[in-house]
Amino acid sequence: MDTVFSDVVKAVISQYPLKVETIYLLSYKGKKAVWSIATEDQGEVIMKKLPMQENDIKFMIHAIDYLRDRGIHTPGVYKTLSGEGYVVHDGEYFVVFESVYGRNPEYEIEEDMRMIMRGMASFHKASKGIESPTGEFPSFLLTEWKDEMERRYQRLVNWKEEKTKLAEKNAIDKLFLKYVDTFLAQAEKALTMLDNPYYEKWVEETKINKTLCHQDYASGNLVIGSDNNLYVFDMDSLTVELPIRDIRKILNKVMKKQTAWDLEKFKRMMKYYQEVNPLTIEQYQILAADLQFPHLFYGQVSKYYEGRDAKWPLRKHFERIKEMTATEISKDAVLQSFLLQLDEVVSHGA
Question: Going by C-beta distance under 8 Å and a sequence separation of 6 or more, which residues neighbour residue 324?
Answer without folding.
Answer: 256, 296, 297, 299, 300
